[in-house]
Amino acid sequence: MTALIDAYPSRQGSRPSITPRKDPVVHATDPGRGPLSADKVERYAREGFLIFERFLDASALAVLRGEMDRLWDNADRADPAVIREPESDVIRSVFDVHRRSRIYDRMVRDPRIVAIIEQLLGGPVYAHQSRINYKRGFDGKEFFWHSDFETWHVEDGMPRMRAASVSIALFDNLPINGPLMLIPGSHLHYVACIGETPEDHFKYSLRRQEVGVPDIETLCHLVKEGDGIAAPAAPAGSLILFDCNTMHGSSGNMTPYPRSNLFVVYNSVKNTLDAPFGGTKPRPEFVAGRDFNPLVPA
Ligand code: 6CS
Ligand code: FE
Question: Which run of H or E residues covers position 131?
Answer without folding.
Answer: strand 125-133
